[in-house]
Specification:
about 190 residues, mainly alpha, 9 helices, about 75% helix, about 0% strand, disordered N terminus, YxaF_TetR_C, TetR/AcrR family transcriptional regulator, transcription regulation
């Protein structure tokens, strides 16, 4: 069977995630996302007949699962290792993009919804943040943190890292990541008795 020359759905989703991480959702059209992924607009609409919101929702979920896979793997060695991997992942993205890219999940989350409804991409962002928090909280509990403290610390970690990525972009420096890493590692050690 001949292989299709059409771009894969996953490549379009990954390209959209990258574009959103650089420009935000409102400033990015589906046409620009398709072009960034080197995909014909027709193929993009074939895979995403509902348009920009559907593609953005998939881009958020794609990013969420990509980060979650890394977290799951690294959290096997404990919450401190998971945090280090989480920070390293975002450091790599910020540095390799010359401080132009951040987190597409955050980019979608901070934009004002177009109506009174919760758009699917925003709902997906909330689910992704909850997934990351859950993974971190589970690891913290497994390593000795009390249930309530684990949940609060997990939320703090996700919020601090996401905010720090934005600070790195603004300051064009990874120094905020270094400073936050040190403080979060200290909190993890205190919570787990390590």
């Amino acid at each position: 069977m001949a292989r299709s020359s059409a771009p894969s759905r996953e490549r379009i989703v990954a390209g959209a995630a990258d574009m959103i991480s650089r420009r935000g959702l409102s400033a990015t059209s589906i046409r620009e996302m398709a072009k960034h992924a080197k995909a014909p607009l027709g193929s993009t609409y074939h895979y995403f007949p509902e348009g920009k919101q559907q593609l953005a929702t998939e881009a958020v979920r794609f990013t969420g699962e990509w980060v979650a896979q890394s977290l799951r793997k690294e959290l096997e060695a404990g919450p401190a290792a998971g945090l280090s991997a989480f920070l390293a992942l975002w450091r790599k993205i910020v540095v390799e993009s010359d401080f132009h890219a951040g987190c597409p999940v955050l980019a979608v989350a901070i934009e004002e919804p177009p109506a009174d409804d919760v758009p699917p991409a925003l709902a997906a962002a909330a689910e992704v943040f909850e997934q990351w928090e859950g993974l971190l909280a589970d690891s913290l509990r497994e390593h000795g943190a009390e249930r309530g403290q684990a949940a609060q610390l997990a939320t703090l970690i996700v919020a601090a890292v996401e905010g720090t990525v934005a600070m790195c972009r603004a300051k064009r420096s990874t120094r905020p990541l270094d400073q936050v890493a040190e403080q979060l590692q200290a909190l993890i050690a205190a919570a787990t008795g390590s």
